[in-house]
Design goal:
Residues 1-25 form the signal peptide. This protein has 331 residues and is an alpha/beta fold. The protein has helices at 2-27, 33-43, 66-74, 90-94, 112-118, 120-125, 130-136, 139-159, 170-187, 192-217, 233-239, 257-268, 284-290, 313-330, and strands spanning 28-30, 50-51, 77-80, 99-102, 224-229, 242-248, 274-277, 296-299. The protein is globular.
């Protein structure tokens, strides 16, 4: 009987521990895969964070499902880039009691004017403007946008304005990790020592990676290239690379014919060593523009879709992206 009593008494404790583990797994949520990889690094051995968007989803086109809303309802802490990236999250986050941490705050002041024009909530709320938006999509306007894209390109890659893919700069990744750690400590102070130990280890690995990638990319800094969409400004700026342009600002939006013709002309003039597509989107446009032209082709993934989450996954991911870029530009 004593053994049975011991077992009976231990079952509620075991169940409680199991339940606690399951709850903590739902408490810390990151919207995007790259943010999730950073969260994995800083929470290693403390808890298992949750990734909200599936690996193959794009924040440009994603809509939350009921199960996703339940994850947000159960969350104690939510990390997101901000409305500039995950516009679909604005209203759902207003309905959660979780502590919400926007990781793009350092750049918000640079986006005030841009957000006034591009805020999707305003667009959704003012249906009367739908006809106006349809007019904006006319070919003549697309051509105008093509010129705007070129004008914005110089600014974006000097000051990284309007580029919300902040995780592609290792310095930004370190700052993201600091913000995550501060928020985590605020909701689970009993794990402060472990969280800060993870943070320090992650920052050291980033410093070592940065030295490695600078050495890798320095020989190809002058090699021109095009990317599929405007996602790499922080990476390009940090490593001093020669990005000539991009096919589209928003991968959900078809690039204008004049803009594509300008890219093809530069390719024909041998200004570019490589053209990079992305696994999330069709490469038909890239294939059409490069047909008959001798130029290298590579694949870059700004969303880390094929990277298995782990303590070192973010470092492995950024190293892989840099290696793909250097390999194509070296040929």
């Amino acid at each position: 009987m004593p053994k049975l009593n011991t077992l009976v008494r231990s079952l509620p404790l075991a169940a409680a521990l199991f339940f606690s583990t399951q709850v903590s797994a739902q408490q810390v949520v990151s919207t995007l895969k790259p943010l999730h990889l950073i969260a994995k690094a800083v929470t290693d051995g403390v808890l298992e964070p949750v990734q909200l968007l599936p690996d193959n989803a794009s924040p440009h086109t994603f809509s939350l499902r009921p199960s996703d809303m339940q994850v947000l309802t159960d969350a104690e802490l939510v990390f997101w880039v901000g409305p500039e990236m995950e516009q679909f999250m604005v209203r759902p986050l207003e309905r959660t009691s979780a502590k919400v941490v926007a990781l793009y705050t350092d750049h918000n002041s640079d986006h005030d004017d841009h957000d006034d024009h591009d805020d999707h909530d305003d667009h959704d709320d003012h249906d009367d403007h739908d006809d106006h938006d349809d007019h904006d999509d006319h070919d003549d306007h697309d051509d105008h946008d093509d010129h705007d894209d070129h004008d914005e390109h110089g600014d974006e890659h000097d000051g990284h304005n309007h580029d919300t893919h902040i995780w592609l700069d290792p310095h930004n990744a370190a700052e993201i990790a600091v913000q995550m750690t501060d928020a985590l400590v605020s909701v689970m102070p009993e794990h402060e020592a472990a969280l800060h130990a993870n943070l320090n280890e992650f920052k050291l690995s980033l410093e070592q990676l940065d030295v490695e990638l600078k050495t890798l990319l320095e020989p190809v800094q002058d090699k021109g290239f095009f990317v599929f969409h405007d996602a790499y400004g922080h990476f390009v700026g940090h490593y001093g690379l020669n990005q000539l342009g991009y096919f589209t600002v928003d991968p959900a939006r078809q690039p204008g014919a004049r803009h594509l013709a300008e890219i093809r002309q530069q390719l024909q003039d041998n200004n570019a060593s490589c053209v990079f597509s992305e696994p999330q989107f069709t490469s038909a446009i890239v294939e059409s523009i490069t047909r008959g032209i001798s130029v290298g082709q590579g694949v870059l993934d700004p969303m880390a879709r094929d990277i298995a989450p782990s303590k070192t996954a973010y470092v492995d991911y950024l190293r892989g992206l840099a290696t793909e870029m250097a390999g194509c530009l070296s040929n």
